[in-house]
């Protein structure tokens, strides 16, 4: 190899390195933007008066009954613990309180006037934790420990945000009751604020963006046995929402660090491919050795992939899975590449043997990182 060729090869290595570094920067920038991107919900309720105005404006109250006959029950919630028991189940504990006009309390043995319609676990016989009078009102506080089920999307894992909603219905359908968020009982309910949750709560791999109340529109294809027109109405369903952001570092260490390690080892095995006898003896290169190395790495990737799929068995392909699929493709490519190179020039293309297998070595990182950057861009931006 003459001096010119050495300089040319050096330039190509520099170009390969710069392009690969650029791909890393692109991936990191997209990750950063996705990870920090969250805008406070613009439709959240900020006060009890605003909640009443929202009900009048957004929902057809006359379809339920005359507005004058509606009974508003201010209802607040405070979470003490929170845990994902599965990909679609959330266990929560805490307190719910309701404020009544003392004169309208129906019995000296009050019962909780709320239910969790999405409850799949825990007792529905809520424990009365406290009762006290504030002016002309009586406040009843109930302790709850329930498991709720709702459908979450994990397609952006591990850069996903989750909104866990705690939907509340009145316990009695036929009494024209509307649950009103007890927003006056919190210090601050401004957009972006976190309230109604213990400051020392442990939520594992998550961070809290904000909490807020809102109403969701409920429409059902049944009359629940009341009358034929009942199922044609719009129902304001009170929800307390908890917006979460996954801690990216944990998932990065668990899944991406092993994948990057495998990628480095595959590159090392590719660098050992040579036609020069001295280097062959030094590196111990032969086709069988490459198959052994790639097979061992395949099982590492496969086991990690299986563990990931167990978490999201009901979802389609999540973002990070594309990296696993890319590793499978690279492994197969390296085996095919090494096989044809080992057969000699008469059985393979000349570019495989140019400069002692230089081209596959040069394009390894640009192809790998470029594919990762393309997948990231298409998934989050495109």
TrEMBL record:
It comes from the Bacteria. Keywords: Membrane, Transmembrane, Transmembrane helix. The chain crosses the membrane at residues 12-32, 248-271, 283-306, 318-342, 362-381. The keyword Transmembrane helix applies. This is Uncharacterized protein. It comes from Thalassotalea insulae.
């Amino acid at each position: 190899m003459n001096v010119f060729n050495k300089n040319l090869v050096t330039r190509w290595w520099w170009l390969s390195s710069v392009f690969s570094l650029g791909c890393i920067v692109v991936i990191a920038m997209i990750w950063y933007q996705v990870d920090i991107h969250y805008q406070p919900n613009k439709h959240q309720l900020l006060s009890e008066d605003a909640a009443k105005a929202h009900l009048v404006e957004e929902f057809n109250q006359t379809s339920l009954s005359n507005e004058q006959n509606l009974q508003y029950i201010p209802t607040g919630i405070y979470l003490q613990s929170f845990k994902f028991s599965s990909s679609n189940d959330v266990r929560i504990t805490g307190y719910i309180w309701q404020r009544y006009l003392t004169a309208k309390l129906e019995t000296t043995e009050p019962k909780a006037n709320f239910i969790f319609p999405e409850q799949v676990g825990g007792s529905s016989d809520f424990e009365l934790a406290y009762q006290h009078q504030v002016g002309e009102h009586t406040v009843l506080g109930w302790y709850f420990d329930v498991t709720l089920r709702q459908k979450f999307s994990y397609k952006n894992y591990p850069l996903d945000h989750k909104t866990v909603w705690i939907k509340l219905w009145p316990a009695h359908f036929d009494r024209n009751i509307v649950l009103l968020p007890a927003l006056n009982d919190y210090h601050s309910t401004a957009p972006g604020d976190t309230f109604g949750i213990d400051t020392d709560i442990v939520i594992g791999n998550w961070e809290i963006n904000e909490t807020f109340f809102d109403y969701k529109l409920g429409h059902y294809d049944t009359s629940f046995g009341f009358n034929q027109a009942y199922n044609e109405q719009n129902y304001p369903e009170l929800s307390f929402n908890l917006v979460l952001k996954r801690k990216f570092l944990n998932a990065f260490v668990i899944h991406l660090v092993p994948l990057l390690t495998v990628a480095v080892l595959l590159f090392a095995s590719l660098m050992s491919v040579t036609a020069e006898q001295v280097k062959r003896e030094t590196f111990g290169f032969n086709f069988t050795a490459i198959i052994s190395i790639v097979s061992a790495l395949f099982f590492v990737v496969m086991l990690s992939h299986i563990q990931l799929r167990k978490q999201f068995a009901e979802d389609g392909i999540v973002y990070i899975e594309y990296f696993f699929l890319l590793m499978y493709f690279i492994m197969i490519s390296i085996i095919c590449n090494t096989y044809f190179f080992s057969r000699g020039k008469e059985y393979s293309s000349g570019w495989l043997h140019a400069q002692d297998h230089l081209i596959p070595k040069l394009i390894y990182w640009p192809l790998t990182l470029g594919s990762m950057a393309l997948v990231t861009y298409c998934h989050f931006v495109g």
